[in-house]
Amino acid sequence: MKSHFYAYISKTRWLQRWGLKRNVVTENVMEHSWEVSTIAHALALIKNKYFDGDLDVNAIVVAALYHDCGEVITGDMPSPIKYHSPEITRAYKSIEHQAEKELLGLLPEELQQEFSSVLVQANIPQQHHRIIKAADTISAYLKCQMELSSGNQEFAKAAESIKANLDKLDQPEVHHFMTVFAESYALTLDELLT
C-alpha cells in the first residue's frame, strides 16, 4: 500500500499562523510544531528533574510534533474565533477530531494503532496534553514578544492575555522554563554569542 500521509503533512509548511494579524515575522504550522516540540521536551524534563514528575518525555515530544497536523485539512483557525463561543469551540473540536481520524486513515493499517496515540488528540494522556498545551501557549507568548520587539503593536493585547494565561497555570515546570529560558529569546545572535 502506498501512503500519502507524510506528503500530506509536509504541506503544513504552507499554512501560515496568526492569520487575523499583521505579522512582521511570518510563522508556519511546521515551524510552530517544531518549536512546541522542543519546548514540550524541556517542560517534561524540567517536570521530571525538579518537580517529581514521572512523564514519558519521548511520547510527549512525538505527540507535540504532530499536535497541529490536522490543520493541513482544517487550516489554522485563529484562537479568537476558535474560542469565540462554546458552540463554535465544540464544532471546531469535532472538525479537528475528524481531520485527525482522516489523516490516521492515510497510514498503512499496521501503523495506525501506534500513530493513534500521538496523532489523535483525544488519545493523548491528559498529563501529556497539559505539557503540550503549555508548550503551545509559551510558543504563542514568544511569538507575541518577537512581534512586539519588532515594533508591531498588533500583538500587544494577545501578549497580555497569553502571559496572564501562563501566570495562572498551576504547572511549576512552566514557571521554571519562563524564568530560566524565556528572556533569552529576545536577544540577537550577536548578543547570545557574547
From TrEMBL:
Q: Which Pfam families match?
A: YfbR-like
InterPro entries of this UniProt entry?
HD/PDEase_dom, HD_domain
User: Domain HD spans what residues?
Assistant: 29-141
Entry superkingdom: Bacteria
What is this protein called in UniProt? 5'-deoxynucleotidase
